[in-house]
Design brief:
This protein is of the alpha/beta class. It has helices at 77-84, 100-108, 146-155, 169-172, 178-190, 205-211, 238-245, 261-269, 293-302, 307-312, 316-322; strands at residues 5-14, 19-28, 31-36, 46-49, 54-57, 59-64, 86-92, 114-120, 128-129, 134-135, 160-167, 194-198, 217-218, 249-250, 338-351, 357-371, 374-375, 390-391. It contains eleven helices and 18 strands. It is 23% helix and 27% strand. One of its GO terms (molecular function) is deacetylase activity. Keywords: Metal-binding, Zinc. InterPro entries: Amidohydro-rel, Deacetylase_Atu3266-like, Metal-dep_hydrolase_composite, Metal_Hydrolase. Zn(2+) 1 binds at residues 63, 65, 164, 280.
Length: 393
């Protein structure tokens, strides 16, 4: 089969194959077709010279809110993904069983970017989240809709990857663990993983972890105090270590209030890296402190995680959390998604959710994406890729 597209001469970093080499990547029929040096091009092949850039599997942002127009926190997935190098945006609970049909028809199906979703167990998802109105959807137990959530999840298995619930003082008030228990019942019924949000107690970090199963995801895992995973002495809480041992996954979910450098330093110093790095992008954090996925990834790069590990946390690890092994990899036969990245050198100011600033010497930047085996960057042609201040080293 002739190649539709060849990315020529980039530094290919694919943690799913433990690959880090300067080579070519070819796509055909919407999938990755081959990896190798000097791959042959036909006259009709779109050949892109990406030397000096990094080619990674398509970046997966495991925690986003992209029900644009359907909820007040939703952002435009295509604009965000183009700027952030994301090829798969996973919406985490913007919609519930009462409004998922609209999310599917009006946002997901028309989108050129792949959108998958965790379905909220609350009837209308996260409906009251704005600058002026902040209503915790899990506080009102009458909104919990397990029967319809199970039905909608079962009917939309092509797009729904799990069940979402938000617990904590702001999300569930004094309802404590009840919304979590309801969501777990739905997840068990449909055989899907759960993603649990946590904010201030009640419930406690430890109480939530104790109920999560192997393959379930705790998002906002590197929160500031209260409900932080680190002790006052800078060690990792025993309950956190025990949860990881039994297969609970820890996701960043940066957002407006859920990532602190202090927590991250303690966790990384103890060898506890996140399973997945995600932005939790929405209307209230897209202009800071989260900004986008590559900025969130950059923070971990500047805090000492290796570049391959940062990429793994946004590709293969996220694909495994989604139970979608065809994503997050450049193995031949995988979905034909790729992200082009550069590492800019300089002095960059990063900020967390409590206002602490970190000056980093590197910044990961998105330079283009491939979706379904086709170059997808309408606002930027390959000839305009800026490399003068970039390096793939």
């Amino acid at each position: 089969m002739p190649f539709d597209l060849i990315l020529r001469g980039g530094r290919v970093i694919d943690p799913s194959q433990k690959l880090d080499a300067v080579t070519d990547v070819a796509f055909a029929g919407g999938k990755v077709a081959a990896i190798g040096r000097e791959l042959n091009a036909d006259p009709a092949t779109d050949v892109r010279d990406v030397s000096g850039l990094i080619v990674s599997p398509g970046i997966i942002d495991l925690h986003t809110h992209v029900y644009w127009g359907g909820t007040s926190l939703g952002i435009d997935a295509e604009e965000f993904c183009r700027n952030s190098g994301v090829t798969t945006s996973v919406d985490t609970g913007s919609a519930g069983p009462g409004n998922f049909a609209g999310f599917r028809k009006h946002v997901i199906e028309p989108s050129q970017v792949r959108i998958l979703a965790y379905l909220h167990v609350s009837h209308a998802g996260i409906f009251g989240f704005s600058d002026r109105v902040m209503v915790g959807e899990s506080e009102e137990l009458r909104l919990m809709n397990p029967v319809d959530a199970a039905r909608v999840a079962d009917e939309n298995r092509d797009l729904i990857v799990g069940i979402k619930v938000r617990v904590g003082l702001f999300a569930s008030g004094t309802s404590g663990l009840v919304p979590l228990e309801i969501a777990l019942e739905v997840a068990e019924q449909v055989g899907m993983p759960l993603m649990a949000h946590i904010d201030h107690p009640p419930p406690s970090y430890e109480e939530v972890l104790a109920r999560l199963r192997p393959g379930d995801v705790l998002t906002h895992a590197f929160r500031p105090f209260p409900n932080t995973p680190a002790t006052a002495q800078g060690t990792v809480k025993r309950s956190v270590l025990e949860a990881r041992e039994r297969g609970v996954l820890f996701d960043i979910g940066h957002g407006k209030g859920s990532f602190a450098f202090k927590t991250a330093r303690a966790m990384l110093a103890n060898g506890f890296s996140p399973d997945t790095i995600s932005s939790d992008i929405h209307q209230l954090c897209i202009d800071g402190p989260a900004f986008d996925q590559v900025t969130t990834m950059s923070k971990f790069l500047c805090m000492g995680m290796s570049l391959p590990d940062v990429i793994a946390a946004s590709t293969v690890n996220a694909a495994m959390a989604l139970r979608r092994p065809e994503l997050g990899s450049l193995k031949p036969g995988s979905v034909g998604d790729a992200t082009l990245l550069s590492i800019r050198q300089g002095q960059f100011d990063y900020v967390d959710v409590v206002g602490e600033h970190l000056t980093g010497d590197r910044k990961i930047a998105s330079e283009g994406v491939v979706i379904g085996g086709r170059w997808w960057h309408p606002k930027q042609d390959a000839a305009s890729l800026t490399r003068s201040h970039s390096s793939a080293v």
